[in-house]
């Protein structure tokens, strides 16, 4: 009786481990886009033919984009963020950024992918210092900067 019970427990443990391995591999491979404030994993879509386009495709104003970051455990993390352009560069903002998971990923590995429409753009996220952030946000010298980090999305 004891041998049968031990065999059953061993089978159950191996089944659970096998299921966890399958779910982990699926999370690495299968894309799941973020929905509004709910984060996703890898982004779906096809890689854009032109990786450094004229950012006027955004229509000149602020627009929502999806940002995919890399985690240390290989499952990608994606979020919805506000983006804008100055004509030459593409920027992504982040409110109260220091406590956010995705910005920690960017601090560790600055390679990101952006999804705009159905196309993916491989970029390097460069966090701007206060002087550059002040210029991009249009905050005059002497006024307090808002609690918003700004990342310039440079080509890789």
UniProtKB/TrEMBL annotation:
This is Uncharacterized protein.
């Amino acid at each position: 009786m004891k041998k049968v019970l031990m065999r059953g427990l061993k089978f159950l443990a191996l089944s659970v481990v096998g299921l966890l391995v399958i779910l982990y591999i699926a999370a690495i491979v299968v894309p799941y886009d973020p929905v509004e404030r709910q984060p996703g994993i890898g982004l779906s879509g096809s890689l854009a033919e032109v990786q450094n386009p004229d950012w006027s495709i955004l229509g000149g104003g602020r627009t929502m984009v999806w940002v995919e970051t890399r985690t240390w455990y290989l499952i990608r993390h994606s979020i919805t963020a506000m983006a804008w352009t100055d004509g030459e560069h593409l920027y992504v903002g982040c409110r109260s950024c220091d406590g956010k998971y995705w910005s920690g990923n960017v601090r560790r590995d600055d390679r990101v992918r952006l999804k705009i429409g159905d196309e993916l753009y491989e970029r390097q996220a460069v966090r701007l210092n206060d002087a550059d952030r002040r210029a991009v946000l249009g905050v005059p010298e002497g006024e307090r900067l808002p609690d918003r980090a700004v990342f310039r999305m440079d080509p890789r």
